[in-house]
């Protein structure tokens, strides 16, 4: 039995009739009201098409100011210039790289303020007017970023969470949720790759004891630690002293108390927090975007959304350089591109079997290596 073919003739005739009707020579036959409606529909664009068809706003002429990005919104950014918070559109001349986030909290940018003559005096119109236009961004000194796979061919895109920070506060909890040394290792690698100083914060010490073996491993690697409780206030003075005068950013799993720490050390922050799920002791997302806050003793701190998994993008042989105890031994391996897993005459593997390298550190290296 032959399948019934679709009848496309009528629809094609309708399209041709419509095109014929609205050719330039036929528009004169329309009524004045119909012509006006047609022209009005042709010039109206939905908001999501404005940038695509008309381009972004061009950079105006005028005096410029330097500022820091403190917030990101669709089509515009919030920039702090001195003590002012300005809402700025993005100039069409701004051309960022395509494989990395164009703007992030902490970016140092140049803006041009809107001129006074652009203000009409009508409140319902002026409330939607931008305070200025962002025209350029300075090169970043440091970044906290995560690789993301995008596009049809899984191209790597670098998602920048924040830029130009000095200290990466890697927050973990002694309990609720449980301590995850492997995630701390990954954040330490990201801090080193992003040219930031890592500082591990053991939060919720009111709920249990710190894993002393893990703390000793961090100390051996030269990574400083702070022990505190955002709930009781214990140890917060040490944390304030470590952050004074510095630009810092919080990172860690959901539920470890990053927002609670900001609320404890920044008066009036009042960030939303959520209780963990007691069924599996896992945190719930309370922070949805990076937010920047001024510290009373000088300096800045950025709160970021929590993560459950953290991917790394690097070569297999590059991973060794982020484990200092392996670097000195890697030169004694038989092969220059040794992965320290199965190769013969591997000095790193031999040291791990002899107990010269902490078993948790070596197994943590292997787990990260499997994901690359």
CATH homology-level superfamily of the largest domain: P-loop containing nucleotide triphosphate hydrolases
Distance between the termini: 54 Å
CA-based gyration radius: 28 Å
Specify the CATH class of the largest domain. Answer: Alpha Beta
Q: Find the count of extended strands (DSSP E, 2+ residues).
A: 13
In quaternary terms, these chains amount to single chain
| Structural class based on helices, strands and sheet pairing | alpha/beta
Number of domains: 3
Give helix and strand order, one letter per element, not per position. HHHHEEEEHEEEEHEHEHEHEEHHH
Strands across the major sheet, in which order?
A: 10-9-8-11-13-12
Q: Which stretches of 5+ consecutive residues score pLDDT under 50?
A: 24-28, 35-56
Helix content: 25-40%
CATH topology of the largest domain: Rossmann fold
What is the percentage of strand-forming residues? 15-25%
Instruction: Name the shape in a single word.
Output: globular
Rounded mean pLDDT score: 79
> Which architecture name of the largest domain does CATH use?
3-Layer(aba) Sandwich
Q: What is the count of helical runs?
A: 12
SSE layout and pairings?
Elements: H1 9-21, H2 24-27, H3 32-43, H4 47-54, E1 64-73, E2 76-81, E3 84-90, E4 108-113, H5 123-126, E5 132-137, E6 143-150, E7 155-163, E8 167-173, H6 181-193, E9 197-203, H7 212-220, E10 225-227, H8 236-243, E11 246-252, H9 258-265, E12 291-294, E13 299-303, H10 324-330, H11 347-353, H12 359-371
Parallel strand pairs: 3-5, 8-9, 8-11, 9-10, 11-13
Antiparallel strand pairs: 1-2, 1-4, 2-3, 4-5, 6-7, 12-13
